[in-house]
Amino acid sequence: MRPLVRKTLDWIPQAPVQVTATRRIAAPVDRVWEVVADHEGWSKWFTALERVERIGTGEGVGGERRVHLK
């Protein structure tokens, strides 16, 4: 396996694989965003995750998280 290499966002159009998914959710935008922004709660609805931990504040643009997969 090749080592991971950190890339900047301008690399995205050159990525060998791009995945896009769309789903309509019958809920107010504020409620949906509240669930998505609850990083530690992701494992409740994304079953491939064991847990998510914030690195530093983990908030806003540039916020970082460590994701533990099952």
> Main β-sheet: number of strands, strand sense, barrel status?
2 strands, antiparallel
For the termini, the CA-CA separation is 19 Å
Helix content range of the residues, please? Answer: 10-25%
- Structural class by SSE content: alpha+beta
Radius of gyration from CA coordinates: 15 Å
How confident overall, as mean pLDDT? 88
Q: Order of strands across the widest beta sheet?
A: 1-2
What does this structure look like?
It contains two helices and two strands. The chain is globular. It has helices spanning 29-36, 42-45, and strands spanning 49-55, 64-69. A two-stranded antiparallel ribbon has the order 1-2. With 70 residues, it is an alpha+beta fold.
What can be said about this structure in brief?
The protein has 70 residues and is of the alpha+beta class. It contains two helices and two strands. It is 17% helix and 19% strand.
Secondary structure elements and pairings:
Blueprint: H1 29-36, H2 42-45, E1 49-55, E2 64-69
Antiparallel strand pairs: 1-2
What are the defining features of this structure?
70 residues; 2 strands; globular; two-stranded antiparallel ribbon; alpha+beta
